Amino acid sequence: MSRHVVVTGASSGIGAACARAFAAHGDRLSLGARRRDRLTGLVEGACIAPLDVTSPTSIERFLAAATAAHGPIDVLVNNAGLARGVEKIAEGTGEAWREMLETNVIGLLEVTRRVLPTMMAQGRGHIVVIGSIAGHKAYPGGGVYCGSKRALQPICEAIRMETLGHGIRVTSVDPGMVETEFSVVRFRGDAERAAKVYQGTRPLQAADVAECVLFATTRPAHVNLDTIVVMPTDQASPHHVHRATT
Ligand SMILES: NC(=O)c1ccc[n+]([C@@H]2O[C@H](COP(=O)([O-])OP(=O)(O)OC[C@H]3O[C@@H](n4cnc5c(N)ncnc54)[C@H](OP(=O)(O)O)[C@@H]3O)[C@@H](O)[C@H]2O)c1
């Protein structure tokens, strides 16, 4: 049966790959991101609308457009997120911390809380969260980003408890290194520095993560995959990456 799948942050990387994977599966899509132009033509027949998860007004407009186009939401993929900078805590700035926490944590909560009540009333629904191995293991220069991803774990656990009996599934898909625009954003547009992150190694591709998301959401209704940790074969922890010597 065709489902209504909402993907936040669908203009790039993992979100865009999720949009393609769900579309190929035959689902109806609503896609949001700040760069609306990048959503155009991503998948045929999708509802596309601007979305800034740090703005409640933007979220409400986006969700209204989504439900007007495709009806009640079956799957919400909370993908919008970012890391900003690699400063140590002592050298960090409140601006970057707030951006990460407001996007990755508060933004996710603000979207999710508006979607859950209808899912509970309809007795089914799937909340997917794109976490990270950063939420499992901290690293120097990543304290706040790691904290924002770690925060998603108790949030997911609490939602499972609070919605128990309503047929709601909650899955966290937690990837290691994925080759997307993530590092360009983290290094504030420094593409050369971003490219070095992936140099000589074989990172995950966005489509690899999208496959995990699609898999989790296509299990039978009584099966909930709580957490999927997906790593490149060449990565054993945030700081253990195998690189081919040339
Ligand atoms: N790449 C990795 O190594 C990796 C590993 C583990 C987890 N993750 C997580 O995967 C998710 C997707 O990241 P990615 O790797 O695909 O990076 P990406 O290519 O930079 O994509 C990030 C997406 O998030 C959107 N976004 C950012 N801020 C937003 C906001 N305020 N409102 C709405 N959308 C917003 C961006 O769209 P606009 O800029 O157009 O708004 C973009 O579509 C993130 O949550 C990230 O933390 C990434």
Layout of helices and strands:
Elements: E1 4-8, H1 13-25, E2 28-33, E3 47-50, H2 56-70, E4 75-78, H3 94-122, E5 125-130, H4 143-150, H5 152-162, E6 168-175, E7 178-179, H6 182-186, H7 191-197, E8 204-205, H8 206-217, E9 227-230, E10 235-237, E11 240-241
Parallel strand pairs: 1-2, 1-4, 2-3, 4-5, 5-6, 6-9, 7-8
Antiparallel strand pairs: 10-11
Characteristics of this structure?
binds NADP nicotinamide-adenine-dinucleotide phosphate; 8 helices; Rossmann fold; two-stranded parallel sheet; alpha/beta; 41% helix
Explain what you see.
The protein has 246 residues and is of the alpha/beta class. It has a single domain, classed as 3-Layer(aba) Sandwich (Rossmann fold), CATH 3.40.50. It is built from eight helices and eleven strands. A seven-stranded parallel β-sheet has the order 3-2-1-4-5-6-9, with helices on both faces. α2 runs parallel beside α3. The N and C termini lie far apart (49 Å). The mean pLDDT is 97. It binds NADP nicotinamide-adenine-dinucleotide phosphate. The site of NADP nicotinamide-adenine-dinucleotide phosphate (NAP) has 31 residues, from α1, α3 and α6.
